[in-house]
Write a structure and sequence with these properties.
- The complex is a heterodimer.
- In chain A, strands 6-7-8-3-9-10 form a 6-stranded mixed beta sheet, with helices on both faces. A 4-stranded antiparallel beta sheet of chain A has the order 2-1-4-5.
- By secondary structure, chain A is α/β, with parallel strands linked by helices.
- Chain A is globular, with a radius of gyration of 18 Å.
- Helix content of chain A is 33%, strand content 24%.
- Chain A contains 8 helices and 10 strands.
- The mean pLDDT of chain B is 83.
- The longest helix of chain B has 30 residues.
- By secondary structure, chain B is an all-alpha fold.
- In chain B, α2 runs parallel beside α4 and α3 runs antiparallel to α4.
- The N and C termini of chain B lie far apart (58 Å).
- Helices cover 83% and strands 0% of the residues of chain B.
- The chains are: A alpha/beta, B mainly alpha.
């Protein structure tokens, strides 16, 4: 499954939210190659989150086809999701929720561990190592709901990275981070992308934290791909559009 | 403790321990997955089943169990088909079961609300048999085995279903399993407290444990312990005050919850944090 050079392929994809008539994204054609790092830009409510959730198979496709490493997301979605690390937008846990940060990061490995199996030594080591990389190892035993927004965001990023996925989907991953983490976390994602050859899609509405080795920028507006080009050209076109 | 020499009381005590454990354990999943309407639906399903049993001259408890289990089996798939939360479907099935119960009772006006139907509604420790004990022990073993093996998936789904699915966990079968198990546990606990009070046993221990602890691994142990303790205390209170067992268990369980809400260390810590923030 992982031998395919194309990591993600969308062919004429449209997604309509239940109860709505207008598609949130429409007729999207997009190919992301293995080990590519792509930024998805666009204003608020332009369809960026919908695009990620559609790629992940969390939203049903109204029209078109999506394949992840050759797997049809509609029929083999669960198998494909085992290879995708997903960091959702503004994920906040209420105070008093009975889960520690370590528990939440370990959940990222569950699909790798397999049904009925228990986490082993390697899983614990992987989780501890990832938390150390994100400098949150001291938060491991603290309840998730007691952490700040930025700390929770780091835990969710650790959850995605601890999974050792082939594809990373980030939805506004830097939005809640403090200024220092806003510099460090993009570098860390950069390292993971390069060293572990993870295909990475980062959705954002601003250009802060833009990674050096970003290969391509896709601009979405009103649910359509407006620009799909190298960062310099894409940004130029986007500025002229806005 | 002369009363303990009586077979009926021995069975009542064993039933208190086993149902307290089962409802306390399943209650954690029901509460955390927000399936709270399931208790109402199951108990009224059992009432409809018992009424049907009386109408067709079958054993009301068997038909009660069949009706409640069947209801539990279909709630999950119907909710997914209708694209509604399982709680909404259980709220629709709840009045349906009541309507069916009244129709079945109308079909047999000469019997009406007989003691057999009333036993399902209010519970009856007199009707507990040795076979019921065997069923409860088997159900305890099966439930513990299922929870042990499916723990990590249930744990992730309780935290956040959407994120669990995004990580590649197939959440549906596990949610159906919880609904079905909760339905079976409710059905087998009917003889102790009855259908009208059973949901207190399902929610109160879990809600009480959540007041005390912030670690799900400890909550899943404490909730069944609270369930067992409140059941036993309720049984003893009923014996001393000569009141119905089910009602006493629910009273003890609710008082326990109320005390824990007032003494909740989580709440205290939250207030302390807020005070610190204000002072800074």
């Amino acid at each position: 499954m992982i031998s395919s050079k194309i990591a993600i392929k969308l062919e004429g994809v449209s997604t309509v939210y239940e109860g709505e008539r207008r598609p949130a994204i429409r007729d999207i054609n997009l190919t992301v190659e293995k080990n590519e790092l792509v930024y998805v830009l666009g204003p608020n409510a332009s369809g960026k989150t919908t695009l990620l959730e559609t790629i992940n198979g969390l939203l049903p496709i109204f029209h078109g086809k999506i394949s992840v490493f050759g797997l049809d997301i509609t029929t083999q979605g669960r198998r494909a999701r085992c290879e995708i690390g997903y960091v959702p937008q503004d994920f906040m846990v209420e105070p008093g929720e009975p889960y520690t940060a370590f528990d939440v990061v370990m959940m990222g490995r569950y699909s790798k561990i397999g049904v009925l199996n228990k986490p082993d030594k390697r899983d614990h080591e992987q989780v501890a190592e990832t938390m150390k990389l994100l400098e949150i190892e001291n938060l491991a035993r603290r309840p998730m709901g007691k952490l700040s927004g930025g700390q929770q965001q780091k835990v969710m990023i650790a959850r995605a990275l601890a999974k050792e996925p082939k594809i990373l989907l980030f939805d506004e991953p830097f939005s809640n981070l403090d200024p220092e983490s806003r510099e460090n976390i993009p570098l860390l994602i950069n390292t993971f992308h390069k060293e572990k050859e993870m295909t990475t899609l980062i959705v954002t509405h601003d250009l802060q934290g833009m990674l050096e080795n970003c290969g391509r920028v896709v601009v979405i507006n009103n649910g359509r791909v407006m620009v799909n080009d190298t960062p310099d050209k894409a940004l130029e076109q986007w500025r002229s559009l806005s | 403790m002369i009363w303990l020499e009586l077979g009926i009381m021995q069975r009542a005590l064993i039933a208190c321990v086993l149902t307290g454990f089962l409802t306390g354990l399943m209650g954690v999943f029901v509460v955390r997955m927000r399936l709270t309407a399931i208790g109402y639906s199951m108990s009224h399903g059992a009432f409809a089943g018992a009424s049907l049993g009386v109408a067709i001259s079958a054993n009301p408890l068997v038909t009660a169990m069949l009706f409640a289990s069947t209801t539990a089996l279909f709630i999950g798939p119907i909710a997914d088909k209708a694209r509604l939360h399982a709680d909404t479907i259980t709220s629709i099935i709840f009045p349906l079961n009541m309507a069916l119960a009244f129709i079945f009772l109308t079909l047999t006006p000469e019997i009406g609300l007989t003691s057999q139907v009333a036993n399902v509604l209010w519970g009856s420790i007199i009707s507990l048999t040795n076979t019921d004990m065997v069923y409860l022990v088997t159900l305890c073993a099966a439930t513990m085995a299922i929870v042990h093996f499916a723990w990590k998936e249930l744990f992730a789904i309780m935290f956040n279903r959407k994120q669990a699915e995004a990580d590649g966990i197939n959440a549906k079968p596990f949610i159906y399993l919880v609904i079905f198990l909760a339905g079976v546990v409710v059905t087998f606990s009917l003889k102790l407290v009855g259908g009208l009070l059973i949901y207190a046993l399902l929610f109160n221990p879990a809600a009480s444990a959540l007041q005390l602890l912030e670690d799900m691994r400890k909550i899943i142990i404490l909730s069944p312990l609270i369930g067992v303790t409140t059941n036993i205390v309720g049984l003893i209170v009923s014996l001393f005050l000569d009141l119905p067992v089910g009602s006493c268990i629910v009273l003890v369980s609710t008082v326990t919850f109320a005390i824990l809400v007032l003494l909740s260390p989580k709440k205290r810590r939250k207030m302390e944090n807020e005070t610190l923030e204000v002072n800074h």
